[in-house]
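Morning!

As promised:
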Amino acid sequence: MPETATARPAGLPAARNSEGDQMSAAHSALLNTMQQRFGERFSISTALREQHGGSEAHHTPALPDAVIFAETTDEVAEIVRLCSASGVPVIPFGAGTSLEGHLVATHGGISVDLSRMNEILRVSPEDLDCTVQAGVTREQLNTYLRDLGLFFPIDPGANASVGGMASTRASGTNAVRYGTMRENVLSLTVVLPDGKVIRTGGRARKSSAGYDLTRLFVGAEGTLGIITEVTLRLYGIPETVSAALCSFETVEQAVGAAIAVVQLGIPVARMELMDRGLVAAVNAYSGLSLKLEDSLVFEFHGAPAGVQEQIELVQAIVEENGGKNFEWASTPEDRARLWNARHNAFYAVVSQRANAKGWSSDVCVPVSELSGCIRYTRELLEDCSVPAAILGHVGDGNYHVVFAVDPTNAEEMAAVAAINKKMVRRAVSVGGTCTGEHGIGIGKIAYMREEHGDAVDLMATIKHAIDPTGIMNPGKILPVA
Amino acid sequence: MPETATARPAGLPAARNSEGDQMSAAHSALLNTMQQRFGERFSISTALREQHGGSEAHHTPALPDAVIFAETTDEVAEIVRLCSASGVPVIPFGAGTSLEGHLVATHGGISVDLSRMNEILRVSPEDLDCTVQAGVTREQLNTYLRDLGLFFPIDPGANASVGGMASTRASGTNAVRYGTMRENVLSLTVVLPDGKVIRTGGRARKSSAGYDLTRLFVGAEGTLGIITEVTLRLYGIPETVSAALCSFETVEQAVGAAIAVVQLGIPVARMELMDRGLVAAVNAYSGLSLKLEDSLVFEFHGAPAGVQEQIELVQAIVEENGGKNFEWASTPEDRARLWNARHNAFYAVVSQRANAKGWSSDVCVPVSELSGCIRYTRELLEDCSVPAAILGHVGDGNYHVVFAVDPTNAEEMAAVAAINKKMVRRAVSVGGTCTGEHGIGIGKIAYMREEHGDAVDLMATIKHAIDPTGIMNPGKILPVA
């Protein structure tokens, strides 16, 4: 058993390979019961199971035994109760956009697809909050909110489900101003591993009433229960929005400018780094003609005078740090083009190579360490045989490397894994984290003890107490033997 | 056993009254061991125990068996290990400013005084963060930070310890702009109930690496472990700070203006309600001559043009809502006088009656419910026989009632308790919480199930898993039979 492993509970099936054919009699009986109960919303089709047990990312898929499309919290509770009684794993599925193998059915089981739970249950413009079912996607939500003059800022790029974003503690480009899912989830409805349904909080903006269960489930990656409803903070669409792009001769200059903006407390809404490799990929993929230099993209939100003041301060900082070619995207169309290109960065890198998969690794470090960590990462990439680019939400100290890999090439995968390991270790060694926003899944488990030390044992204690039979998304965050 | 009770672990002493004289042999032996080990830093003096088992608030004191002044995390771990072996309760003590009986030694035990752990261990101006020992007070920290151009915004009024503020998930006047301890603690060093020491996180601004242990201990009121070090977010002192006070004929008008400011997303740094009763008390206590009307106090932080813009927007909203007498406190001295008066609100109300204690109850509701809840509370206060006033961090939907009570008058205490109960129930019934920032302690336990339903059982599961012998601040948050 590896050092970080939690013991495998007696009832839980062993880890399996992608064939996934070691099924017990109780397990088979459960599938029959489920089929009777859910009819055509239950499926064992290989194509569907492949879609639910794989991802766009590089991890080796492992298929669930079946997929069920749940439509209500009560149905999810019923599925969990049945699985609990039979010791069958349960894996919640939202939009399938996670990057660290969160959906890989390492121990088989049932994939509970929540995508049909896509109702926006309530919006309160007075309170700037809403409650949605877990399968609502962020684009769906923002389309709905637009006519009310509101928006939900958390934007991981992909059109993820709100439940999935809560489960991975997602953030993205706007986090430097608006925070992450940690700060923007007010409360959750959760189905616990025994099938009980709880609410983790109310609608008050703050509370000191007991343990912070909301924050316990945000980021738990479905290992403690299934999130079925989410109450979110919302924001008024700013009166003024302005975006700008500028370029630098070196990535250190770009990072230096970003750090200065943070340190001066200028409330930029977005501040994104694209290294020159990424700019090239984005130009090719999205038909843009951005200057081939290390670049920062800014967005400013607020009332007109405040935005103008922010712009002037940022422009001065950029120039002091050697930045130039300040280009404005003032119309909504120009801004949309710029941010769409940024959002498609993952695909832009992957498309540089035929039949490649994307391996996107993210770390987050104190901003004072950002320049050194990125410089070190670039040095590592000099010896990398596959297309790779650096991008980042640098205002938070968070950056990603996207590699275009061939998962069937073991030697290449080992080489990329070695680079990833060095990048992660460097981040952890300077007080950072092995993942700023993608989550642990199966991809970062090996770094949990390195980052958290004995605190990992406390996480395992909590996991055992809440999910004693270990059925909730086993093998994620904490390894199961 | 009441519905919300968690079972009393076999080793834990029964709840006791304030005489606190039912001590087992093992318990007495432990005290001898502690005295040997800690010498003059161990005390059983009645005066000291009274100071540690009581508070300025209305709760009936219960004394710990002894007080130990710890000086290092290792010492705290040693004390906890010894107490754990003997089943003796441990109650962490910071500055003694909590309001809901968090320090009352309902089951006896050792009060671990952390006030000598008051070292500022590290400040990083580049990263806008610092690490301090738990006994550092917020005023001590801000005095230290001033020369660096930095400040820590969380301001509960009292000069609380940072560890205590983390433990009660404190917030206060600046939370509408900067968030609460929930958002501003980056990580903690915690002594667990078995004496192990963990770090709950690193220094990255965000992380998706496993369960959010930081947020689990923030607000746990010492019931899951003892916080000994805290890493905090810091902020640059704003270039421009401006404060203003304005008055309204009715409290509904004042609340209406506050709600409009929130809904427009104007980033005010502070927005405080003082009802006319509080204004009268504050004038008398602090020698001011504020107009005797329901009032809002604002503070604005930022760069000059942005602040000016905020001021103009707020002034227009205030006038639309019937506000008048806009008075500016532009000099640091004027601002300090205004905020000191506001900070002394608790004492101002209590001083209206000789030999009174303060009973400060707080609730937090969605802002759309704030006006109705405050109106209801004022109606309740019309029949109240003791001095009372309403004040609030209305930008968050958080308000307090301070009563000046005579704790020895059972009839009066029952009458105030009845008002409190009605106020809390109304808050919970509209989606709010029974405490926005004071915590549960012993004072709000009765409302835990009403607010959280079956989620209380999950909290008890977590408590049992982390503290199986139940020694950590027993009787707080979750009752012990």
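Residues 445 and 469 of chain A are 20 Å apart (CA to CA).

Hope this helps with the figure draft.
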